[in-house]
């Protein structure tokens, strides 16, 4: 009966485990960096008149990491942030988060593409 040498399979499995761990770390960093860039962009490029600075100062992000990866949520904590972003029946919209996301998304896509190539 022929013997099967599984050492190459074990080595391949170990390489995949190391690569997936490294990819997860790199993806986490990319998501967090992109969220921070979105926040900076939104603060820098807003078009609304903000006399108190409350809305601008409330823009931030929270990131969480679990077995599914890293998730980041960016936006203002000021209760009226959505009214500024989307407008109301009495005021026109002054989008600041959506455009910041659109400008920063290509950098995240590029970072993720590089991770996949590793």
UniProtKB/TrEMBL annotation:
Listed InterPro entries: HK97-gp10_tail (IPR010064)
Domain of life assignment: Bacteria
Pfam families listed in its UniProt record: HK97-gp10_like
NCBIfam families, per the entry: phge_HK97_gp10
Protein name, per record: HK97 gp10 family phage protein
């Amino acid at each position: 009966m022929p013997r099967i040498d599984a050492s190459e399979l074990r080595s391949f499995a170990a390489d995949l485990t190391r690569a997936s761990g490294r990819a997860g770390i790199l993806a986490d960093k990319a998501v967090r960096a992109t969220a921070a860039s979105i926040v900076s962009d939104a603060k820098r490029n807003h078009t609304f008149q903000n006399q108190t600075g409350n809305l601008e100062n409330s823009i931030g992000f929270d990131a969480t990491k679990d077995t599914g990866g890293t998730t980041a949520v960016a936006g203002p904590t000021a209760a009226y942030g959505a009214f500024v972003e989307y407008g109301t029946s009495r005021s026109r919209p002054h989008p600041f988060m959506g455009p910041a996301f659109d400008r920063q998304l290509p950098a995240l896509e590029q970072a993720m593409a590089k991770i996949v190539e590793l």
